[in-house]
Design brief:
Chain lengths: 348, 178
Amino acid sequence: MISVAWTAVKVIFAVATGLNIAGFLGWLERKQSAVLQDRIGANRAEIFGFRVLGFFHPIADALKMLTKEDYIPPFAHQPFYAMAPGISLGFGLLGLAALPFGGNITAFGHSVSLQPIQSPYGLLLVLGLLSLGVHGVVMAGYSSASNYGLIGGLRGASQMIAYEVCLATTLSSVAFVYGTLDLQQAVLWQGRLLFGFIPAWGIVLQPLGFLLFLTAAAAETKRTPFDLPEGESEIVGYHVEYSGMKFGMFLMTDFVESIVVSGLATALYLGGWQVPGLHLAGALGGLIMVLAFLAKVMLVLFLLMQIRWTLPRFRFDQLLDLGWKNILPLSLLNFLLTVWGVYLWRLR
Amino acid sequence: MAIKIKEVTRPPRNFQGQIFIWEVWLGLLVTFRHLFVNLWRHTLKAMGIKTEPGSVTIQYPEDPAVLGRRARTRHRLLKREDGTPRCTACLLCETICPAKCIRIVAEDSPDVIIEKRAKSFSIDLGLCVFCGYCAEACPVDAIHMDSSDVAITAYDRKDMIWNMAELLEGKKSPSIAQ
Ligand code: SF4
Ligand code: SF4
């Protein structure tokens, strides 16, 4: 009973952290794009005359979303229409709970795991949750009884399925190196050193895999240059009929899924909560673990944002070409090389 | 001026461009450079050290808007040397206006050489599309679009209709007056 409650607390903590980071990303997205385009960015929202670099804009956004009229198109399929944003966001948030925010520590006489949902198949769990998110997209497009929405949803589905295959292939090679599907074990594996001084992080062992993963992850989370399903400003996307908080939930889904894939990237390629040269244990160690993990996640998110504001959008056929004809063969090649490499390493 | 033709050579589709990754890296270098240079300038400015500005943003309502020299702004009726309006009520502007937002009532001018003048002249700025045709059509150069006023606002549609006196002298929009 205690353990169930404790897990619930951890899950809620992970979800809350994720949602806070998502709000922060709303700010970061605006400001980063503004600064790199020689602008200032949103800076008008103020509370009692304080503006604090536009930090209140996410709050103003949320207020606006909550108070806007939630218009349901008369021909929409009501239950599906209402469920779609929840499915998108819900599975994204669950994915957060499976990330290894920290290792197993002993604090105040108790042994605690800092990973909310610990499972020997954690990687598969996160991947599965990410793919379930696709259903929200398709459902939204289908149920809103709009041809534009439907086409947008189909576009989203074919893109996400294409890149899911690449994602799974790339991740299977890194899982092959660690010999486990447990995210916690993978992070622990990365604690060792190569040749005595290089941390054996996934990015060192699988540089090509990291690049492929980043590309596929950007496509999977519908971030520019792969944001065709939504096409924020030009192409009509699957959520064209949504308004108010339901639209806001789709927006949040984007950020939350970015956090999930950044967390995956951190856990599998950037050494997770490991800090090279530090042996982390106890309560303080746990704190450092969580902070290190979040810092690495923020770094990946920052990189993803920067890529987003650097590259123009792909055309849809180019996008599928890139996925099926370039990234998938490359990830298969990467897998083959990894298998041979690991085989030869074990023969040694 | 004779039309000049500029040949634009397409960049060749080479291997380097087709594997994306190198070009993405170059693009990232550009954006990262902008990001960090601008951040550095903002930081210096926050510490009170004079540098190049970190952004080109004009904070509009506080700072004045910067308009192009040929920007078409709110109309202005011009006067002769003696202070009477130049307009001879020829109705060319009213005729050409695509938005049909000019209303002119003509009357006889006491000056026999001028013959005609406008009794009333109004433009519905809420309908105007700022095409500039009226200023171009006017044969006596009586109407210009160079008042540099773009903040034309009102709380009522009928307040967007400016009469002759207002067009001659200009009036303050309520948002600016407050
Ligand atoms: S600018 Fe164009 S639309 Fe406006 S009053 Fe003149 S002719 Fe009419
Ligand atoms: S074209 Fe010029 S002179 Fe003729 S009515 Fe218009 S403003 Fe007056």
